[in-house]
Specification:
The complex is a heterodimer of chains A (534) and B (256). Chain A is mainly alpha-helical and 534 residues long. Chain A has a single domain, classed as Cytochrome c oxidase-like, subunit I domain (Cytochrome C Oxidase, Chain A), CATH 1.20.210. Chain A contains 18 helices and no strands. Chain B has 256 residues and is of the alpha+beta class. Chain B is built from 6 helices and 10 strands; from the N terminus they run H-H-H-H-E-E-E-E-E-E-E-E-E-E-H-H. In chain B, the strands form 3 sheets. In chain B, strands 3-2-1-5-8 form a 5-stranded mixed sheet, with no helix packed on it. In chain B, a hairpin with a 4-residue loop joins strand 2 and strand 3. In chain B, helix 1 packs across helix 2 and helix 3 packs antiparallel against helix 4. Classes of the chains: A mainly alpha (534), B alpha+beta (256). At the A-B interface, helix 4, helix 11, helix 12, helix 13 and helix 14 of A face helix 1, helix 2, helix 3, helix 4 and strand 7 of B.
C-alpha cells in the first residue's frame, strides 16, 4: 500500500526516534508506551514483594523496620494495581481496540497522549515519596483514616501518594472517555454492537466502570487530603466525622476497580482460546451479557470488604447476596471458554498455555471468592492471609496470566516478529508452578489465623511462610525468562506475516488482515463487515 | 528443604515442631473450634463447599479432558458449533439454585452471630495503639494490655471501640472478628469452653500492628467468681449479673 502512504503525508510520523516517541499521538505507539511503563513498575512492585517475602522468612525478623514494612506492603499493592496492571491493560486496549474495529486511531489522539504522559509525574511522585521524611504512604493501599490522617501519619509521603493517585485517576477517566467514544462512533461499516469483538466489548464495559468509579476515588482522596492538610473533619471522629464514610466511599471505587482489572483479561481469553482451537467463540451473546452483568453487579458488592466493620445485618445480607450472584456470570464465561475449545484443534502454544492456566487458577480464585461472600466464613478469615491468597489468585493467576497470554498472542502483530516458543513455554511453567507455590499456602495461613500486613508473626506460622518465600524465586525466574523472550525476540524472532495464527480462516478479525506491525494508518481502506460474515 | 531451615534460623521452633505445625496447625477454628459458634461456622462453610465444589471440579475435569481429547495431532478437524441454548441455560440456572441453597442457612447463622442470646456478662473492649483495654462495667475492673478473663459457658458480650485508629478484634478460634472503629461502638459475642484462646489485631493500625496480641482466658465459673472477687473494685457486687435491658436493645440496633 505504498502508493496510499505516499499520498497521505500526514500519516507519516513528523519526527523520528526519541522525539517521535515523546510526541506521538499514534494509538499503537501510545499502547507500547503504556506497556513499557507497566513493565518498569511491575519489576519495582516485584522488588517490593521480594523484600516483603524476605522479611517474612523468619517469624521474628525485624531486618526491615515495622514502619518501612508498612510502606512496602502499601507501595507493593499501589504500584501493581495503579502502575502495572491498569496501564498494561490500557496499553493492550489502546493498541488493539482501534485495529479491531477497523479504525485508524482513537477518537481523541492528543487526549490519548495526555492520558499516558500524565502518568509520568504520578510515577515520579510515587517514587519520590520513599525519600521524604517519614517515608511513603504506609496505611495499606486503602489508606483508611484515622490512620492515614496527619495526626497518625506524619510527613508528606502520604500526600504525595494521594496526589499521584489523583493524577492517575485523570489518566484513567480521560482514557475511558476515549475508549467509549471510539467504540461507539468509529466502528467499521457493518460492525453492529453484536458483531463487536469481545475484547472491544470488555473494554467498553471496563471504560464505563472507570468513568463511574474513579471520580469517587478522586473525591474521597481529596477529602482525605483536606483532612490531612486543611483541618477538615470528614473522617475524623473528634471533629464529628466518620471513618466508616471513608470505607464506604473507598470501596465503592475499590470493588469495581478489581473488575476493571480483570475484564480486559476476560476479553483477551475470548479471542485467544477460540483462535488457537480453530473455532469461533462459544456463546457470544452470553459472553456479552456476562460482561455487562459483571460490570453492573460489581457496583453492588462493595461492602463485602466491610462485613466486620460494624455494618448492619441487613447490609451484610444484601452485599453477600450480590457477591454470590456475581459468580453466575463468571461461571458462564468459564464454561463458555471451555466450550470454545471443545471439539476444536487445540494448538499448545504459549498463549494457549497461559490462558488455560489462567482458567484453571482463576476458577480456584472464584471458589475462594464465593467462600468469602459467605459472611460467617468471612468473619473467620477477613483480613487474614486467606484473603491475600484469594486476591493474588484472581489478580496474578487471573489478570496477569491473561495479560501475558495476550502479549504473547499479539506479539507478532505488535512487533512484526515471532517470540521464542521454547522460552515462552519455560516462562509459563515457571510462573504457573511459582504462582501455586506462593499463593496456595496463603489460604492455609489464613485459616490458621495469620492476619495480613504483619511484619512479624507467631511461630506456628513459620513453616508456610518460609515455604512461600522460597517460591518467590520461581516467580522471579519466570518473570526474567518472559522479559528475556520479549527483548531478544525483537532482534532474533522470525519475521511475522499478517496472520501467523491464521485467525482469519475461522473468524473475521481486522487486526490480522493488516501487516505486522501495521502501518501508521492501520488500513489503507477502512475495512467493512459483509452482512453474511460473522 | 524448609524443615531444616526452620530449625537453623528459628531456634524455638525445631524441625519437628514445624512439621507438626504444618500438618496439624495449633488451635484453629478448623481443627479445634473453640466455641459452639466456631463449630457452626465451620459446618456452614463445609456445607457451602459441598454445594459449590462440584461446579469447580466439573470445570477442571472438563478443561483437562478437552485439552487431552482435542489437542492437535489426532487427525480431527475443528467442530463448527458456537452456541447451545440448553447448555447455556443449564450452566446459568444450576449455579443459581446451588447458591440459593447456600444462602439460606448462611443468613440464619449470621443472624445468630449478629444478635446472639442474652448476654451474661458485658465487656467494653477499647483498642489503642498498640494494645487492648478491657473494662467490666459495674465491677470497676479496667485491664489494659492484659488477658481478658471471662467465665466459661456463659454468653459474653463485647462492646468494642477505639480511641485512635481502626483496629480489628480478632479471635478466630472462637469465631470472633469485629473492627474497633473510633466514634462507633461495635458488637460481638461468644460463649466458650474453659481454655486459653489467642488472637491479634486484624486491621492495620500503625507501626506495632503485628504486636497487638489478644489473649482470652476462659475460667470455669467458680474460678471466675474467685477472680472476680479479687479484682472487682468497691462499686457493686462481685456476683455475675445480667446486664440491664438497655444492653439488649443496644446490641440489636447496630451502627453504620
Amino acid at each position: 500500500m505504498s502508493t496510499v502512504a505516499a499520498t497521505l503525508p500526514e500519516t507519516q510520523p513528523r519526527y523520528h526516534g526519541l522525539r517521535d516517541w515523546l510526541t506521538t499521538t499514534d494509538h499503537k505507539k501510545i499502547g507500547l508506551l503504556y506497556l513499557g511503563f507497566a513493565f518498569i513498575n511491575v519489576w519495582a512492585g516485584g522488588l517490593l514483594a521480594g523484600l516483603i517475602r524476605l522479611d517474612l522468612y523468619n517469624p521474628g525478623w525485624k531486618i526491615i523496620s515495622p514502619d518501612f514494612y508498612n510502606q512496602l506492603i502499601t507501595m507493593h499493592a499501589t504500584l501493581m494495581i495503579f502502575m502495572a496492571v491498569m496501564p498494561a491493560f490500557a496499553g493492550m486496549g489502546n493498541y488493539l481496540v482501534p485495529l479491531m474495529i477497523g479504525a485508524r486511531d482513537m477518537a481523541f489522539p492528543k487526549l490519548n497522549a495526555f492520558s499516558f504522559w500524565i502518568m509520568v509525574p504520578a510515577a515520579l511522585m510515587m517514587y519520590a515519596s520513599f525519600f521524604v521524611p517519614g517515608g511513603s504512604a504506609r496505611g495499606g493501599w486503602w489508606s483508611y483514616p484515622p490512620l492515614s490522617t496527619f495526626q497518625f501519619m506524619g510527613g508528606h509521603g502520604e500526600d504525595l501518594w494521594i496526589l499521584a493517585i489523583l493524577l492517575l485517576g485523570i489518566s484513567s477517566v480521560t482514557g475511558a472517555i476515549n475508549f467509549l467514544v471510539t467504540i461507539s462512533d468509529m466502528r467499521a461499516p457493518g460492525m453492529g454492537w453484536f458483531r463487536l469483538p469481545l475484547f472491544v466489548w470488555s473494554w467498553f464495559v471496563t471504560a464505563t466502570m472507570l468513568l463511574v468509579a474513579l471520580p469517587v476515588l478522586s473525591g474521597t482522596l481529596i477529602m482525605l487530603l483536606s483532612d490531612r492538610l486543611f483541618g477538615t473533619g470528614f473522617f475524623r471522629p473528634a471533629l464529628g466525622g466518620d471513618p466508616l464514610l471513608y470505607e464506604h466511599l473507598f470501596w465503592f471505587f475499590g470493588h469495581p476497580e478489581v473488575y476493571i482489572m480483570i475484564l480486559p483479561g476476560f476479553g483477551m481469553l475470548s479471542h485467544i482460546l477460540p483462535s488457537l482451537s480453530g473455532k469461533k467463540v462459544f456463546g457470544y451473546k452470553g459472553m456479552v451479557f456476562a460482561l455487562i452483568a459483571i460490570g453492573t453487579l460489581g457496583y453492588l458488592v462493595w461492602a463485602h470488604h466491610m462485613f466486620t466493620s460494624g455494618i448492619t445485618p441487613a447490609a451484610q445480607v444484601f452485599f453477600s447476596i450480590c457477591s454470590f450472584a456475581i459468580a453466575v456470570p463468571t461461571g458462564i464465561k468459564i464454561y463458555s471458554w471451555i466450550a470454545s475449545m471443545w471439539g476444536g484443534v487445540i494448538r499448545f502454544v504459549t498463549p494457549l498455555l497461559y490462558c488455560v492456566g489462567m482458567i484453571a487458577m482463576f476458577t480456584f480464585g472464584g471458589l475462594t471468592g464465593i467462600m468469602l461472600a459467605n459472611v460467617p466464613f468471612d468473619i473467620l478469615v477477613h483480613n487474614t492471609y486467606f484473603v491475600v491468597g484469594h486476591f493474588h489468585y484472581v489478580l496474578v493467576a487471573g489478570s496477569v496470566m491473561a495479560l501475558i497470554g495476550g502479549i504473547y498472542f499479539w506479539y507478532p502483530k505488535m512487533t512484526g516478529r515471532m517470540y521464542n516458543e521454547k522460552l515462552g513455554k519455560w516462562s509459563f511453567w515457571l510462573l504457573f508452578i511459582g504462582i501455586n507455590w506462593v499463593f496456595f499456602p496463603m489460604h492455609i495461613l489464613g485459616i490458621m489465623g495469620m492476619p495480613r500486613r504483619v511484619a512479624i508473626y507467631r511461630p506456628q506460622f513459620a513453616f508456610w511462610n518460609q515455604f512461600i518465600s522460597l517460591g518467590f524465586f520461581l516467580l522471579l525466574a519466570g518473570g526474567l525468562v518472559f522479559t528475556w523472550n520479549m527483548v531478544i525476540s525483537l532482534r532474533r524472532g522470525e519475521r511475522a506475516s499478517n496472520d501467523p495464527w491464521q485467525v482469519n480462516d475461522i473468524q473475521h478479525a481486522f487486526e490480522w488482515t493488516t501487516s505486522s506491525p501495521p502501518p501508521a494508518y492501520n488500513y489503507a481502506e477502512i475495512p467493512e463487515l459483509e452482512a453474511s460474515e460473522a | 528443604m524448609p524443615l531444616f531451615w526452620t530449625a537453623w534460623i528459628h531456634p524455638t521452633a525445631s524441625g519437628l515442631d514445624a512439621a507438626l505445625a504444618a500438618v496439624q496447625p495449633l488451635h484453629n477454628w478448623l481443627t479445634s473450634p473453640g466455641s459452639p459458634m466456631a463449630r457452626r461456622m465451620r459446618s456452614n462453610i463445609g456445607y457451602e463447599l459441598e454445594l459449590t465444589l462440584p461446579f469447580i471440579i466439573a470445570a477442571w475435569v472438563l478443561l483437562a479432558y478437552c485439552l487431552y481429547r482435542f489437542r492437535r495431532g489426532r487427525g480431527h478437524s475443528a467442530a463448527k458449533f458456537s452456541h447451545n441454548n440448553k447448555l447455556e441455560a443449564t450452566w446459568t440456572v444450576l449455579p443459581i439454585l446451588a447458591l440459593i441453597a447456600v444462602m439460606f442457612p448462611a443468613y440464619k447463622l449470621l443472624h445468630h452471630i449478629d444478635y446472639g442470646p442474652r448476654p451474661d456478662l458485658s465487656i467494653n473492649v477499647v483498642g489503642h495503639q498498640f494494645f487492648w483495654e478491657f473494662k467490666y462495667p459495674g465491677y470497676g475492673i479496667d485491664r489494659a494490655n492484659q488477658a481478658l478473663v471471662v467465665p466459661a459457658n456463659r454468653n459474653i458480650a463485647l462492646h468494642i471501640t477505639s480511641v485512635d485508629v481502626i483496629h480489628g478484634f480478632f479471635v478466630p478460634d472462637l469465631g470472633v472478628q469485629m473492627d474497633a472503629v473510633p466514634g462507633h461502638i461495635t458488637y460481638a459475642w461468644f460463649r466458650a469452653q474453659p481454655g486459653t484462646y489467642r488472637g491479634q489485631c486484624s486491621q492495620l493500625c500503625g507501626t506495632l500492628h503485628s504486636e497487638m496480641l489478644i489473649k482470652i482466658i476462659v475460667l470455669p465459673p467458680e474460678q471466675f467468681q474467685d477472680w472476680l472477687s479479687r479484682h472487682a473494685k468497691a462499686t457493686g457486687s462481685t456476683r455475675l449479673r445480667r446486664p440491664p435491658r438497655w444492653h439488649r436493645e443496644f446490641r440489636a440496633g447496630r451502627t453504620a
